[in-house]
Design a protein that fits this description.
This protein is mainly alpha-helical. Helices cover 76% and strands 0% of the residues. The two termini are 26 Å apart.
Amino acid sequence: MIENQIQNRILNLSPNKQLLFGVSCVIRMQVYLERYLISKGQFSSFAIIRNLIDKTLFRCAMDQFNQIVKNTNIEDIHLIEQIIPDTDEDGSNEAVLAQNAAIALAYCLDFTEENNVDFINYCRLKAIETADIIALGILNLENSDSLVSKELAVQSQVLDIINYMKRDFNSMDIQEFKQIITQFKMEY
């Protein structure tokens, strides 16, 4: 099954490339978190989150990655925990989509501390869940199979891109990667 293949491909990546994949999932869902924060008037949180995503992305470069645990700030983790929408209070699709993006970012930060690839797989699953919510809750499709299949195909493409990146990629390579990934944003 393609999900198992993707999981195995992630497992075979170097840790900095694993994190790069996780952050790519966040970037692809980022728009939902940004829209939600703006709709709630949390403009300052919006800017801080955008910077945190970029900071995490650029720490995937080999020269930065070796220092990642030292550079991970506990305040960043607390910030994410504070902005994760409470879907018990706001069960809207928008809140759930924002929650998925925020939780995926939290998983990336957890990965930087624990170097456990399970956190990157959880990011991948949040992106799949987002496709499911878009299909069923927003587009009102009968099932989510088509959108989930497209999401799995995109994840496979992103892994292809990451796999072909040189091992010691730098911040310029990451900037180029970010431009490519933005073409794969999950938008309805």
